Amino acid sequence: MTSTDDFLKANESYAASFGDKGSLAIPPARKLVIITCMDARIDPAAHLGLKEGDAHVIRNAGGVAADAIRSIVISQRLLETHEIAVFHHTGCGMLLFQTQQLRDLVKNAAPDDSEVARHVDAIHFHEFSNLEEAVQRDVLFLKSHPLVLKETTITGWIYEVETGRIRQII
Amino acid sequence: MTSTDDFLKANESYAASFGDKGSLAIPPARKLVIITCMDARIDPAAHLGLKEGDAHVIRNAGGVAADAIRSIVISQRLLETHEIAVFHHTGCGMLLFQTQQLRDLVKNAAPDDSEVARHVDAIHFHEFSNLEEAVQRDVLFLKSHPLVLKETTITGWIYEVETGRIRQII
């Protein structure tokens, strides 16, 4: 079982009402970058009112800024964005484990595989223990990062999975 | 000017019709991970018919699998996903530059800053020159990666920004 048939069926509807979106420009119209978590409960376009063409959307486990620098450099230097909004969210899985625990879990599942151990020991999973602090830390990280343009507007937010509401932290 | 007021206004509407989404579980209901580009023209939930709770969505510049391993390990080992669909798209900015060009552009904008040079020279930007090949390469990369579970179903797709349509490559 794969999602192939589901994808094709849903996409048929989307393409049928695509309208004039085929003429959108590459640079985001709102010169905006969103960084948020990969969490399945989050639909950033829906909860922020973004439509196709508006903003770059970077998503990874936790909405971790340190994991987004490559993408941000491309966004800012080649496609002229100058605002970044970082979102973390309540109930995030990143609050529930520590890097060493996950490394151990992966290695214990393949105890004789040195390649697995080598790869997983090289990864820091960027978990966090306090949501507000993690937002503040990510915003400060971006503000002080040598590759993020100095004139960038950077804000930090929390999305509440329980209510669908957002609140600004910094 | 920031997007703060726009975010809050749009979010008010979203939260008002949030319904019972506050009770969704953390693990994706469809045990599915989507990897796709940060491109502003792409709304993966819309063009694939995903609703909140269905799938992890990882997005970065290009939809590059090598940049998603940390997130995939968390998704698979802690939240039990076992299908990955990788999407690249027509008209991608990653087809338009080479790493050395972008490094030079960044360094030329701050010619006396050795920190900028040090940071940008450490980044490979993972550009690609052929779309179909890039999809195939990313799928093979994931299939052979020591940290991706062997039983994972992995498919590769192209999204057409001109039409809104998807097509499966592998």
From TrEMBL, chains A, B:
UniProt GO MF annotations: carbonate dehydratase activity; zinc ion binding
Reactions mediated catalytically: hydrogencarbonate + H(+) = CO2 + H2O
Enzyme class: lyase
Keyword Zinc annotated: yes
Organism domain of life: Eukaryota
Functional description taken from the UniProt entry: Reversible hydration of carbon dioxide.
PANTHER family, per database record: CARBON DISULFIDE HYDROLASE, CARBONIC ANHYDRASE
Protein name per the record: Carbonic anhydrase
